[in-house]
Specification:
The chain is an alpha/beta fold and 230 residues long. The chain has 9 helices and 8 strands. An 8-stranded parallel β-barrel has the order 1-2-3-4-5-6-7-8. Helix 6 links the parallel strand 6 and strand 7. The protein is globular. The N terminus is likely disordered. The protein binds D-xylitol-5-phosphate and zinc ion (ZN). D-xylitol-5-phosphate binds next to strand 2, strand 8 and helix 8. The site of zinc ion has 6 residues, from strand 2.
Length: 230
Amino acid sequence: MSDKRRTSGEPRYRIAASILSADFARLGEEVGRVVEAGADFIHFDVMDNHYVPNLTVGPMVCEAIRPLTQATIDVHLMVKPVDRIIPDFARAGANIISFHPEASEHVDRTIGVIKEAGCKAGLVLNPATPLVYLDHVLGELDLVLLMAVNPGFGGQRFIPYTLDKLRAVRARIDEIGREVLLEVDGGIKVDNIADVARAGADTFVAGSAIFGSPDYAATIAAMRAELATV
Ligand code: DX5
Ligand code: ZN
């Protein structure tokens, strides 16, 4: 991470708790508990049974949890087409909206739709999606999200070559010298988070590692302890 980032007053690392692995029957309570436990972001996974083979939640659920927390709501759209639903999530209180280039006919336009709606814009690259998608638009983005699993399900194993992609994106972000979050999603656990940070990530999505543990605060504290060693 660049020194510029470290002096900006922002935290060096952020934990984004993915509610995909929360108890949906008690979602509001789960959001409160995980923020109380130390999560920085609520990572909100939106799946459409079309772009990905699973179906989750939409803007109405985002709107329902918005009053429950001041935490950043980090919406990860796994939907195709994507543009039409973006203003709905902005109205529902999303802070960051990220999308996959394969789900957009016009990536630059979709970034513009997110910004015009008043949100920060992120681009998500699947494990096999090449970094060339960043060539022309990195300067327009607030966040790059690298998938370390194929999107659609929680609880999958971290794909190791993601580390090489992280190092490459870290170098590109440092080169342009403005703040762009580098988030990683899938298979993040207490025992690999430090290696992932060393490869350049600053924002870590964790679903099953947190919500599958008996004590969310202890798990997040263990992640931060690992990050402190980096
Ligand atoms: C997968 C989702 C992830 C998922 C991560 O498509 O985008 O956010 O919840 O889950 P874990 O942390 O269990 O791999
Ligand atoms: Zn996600």
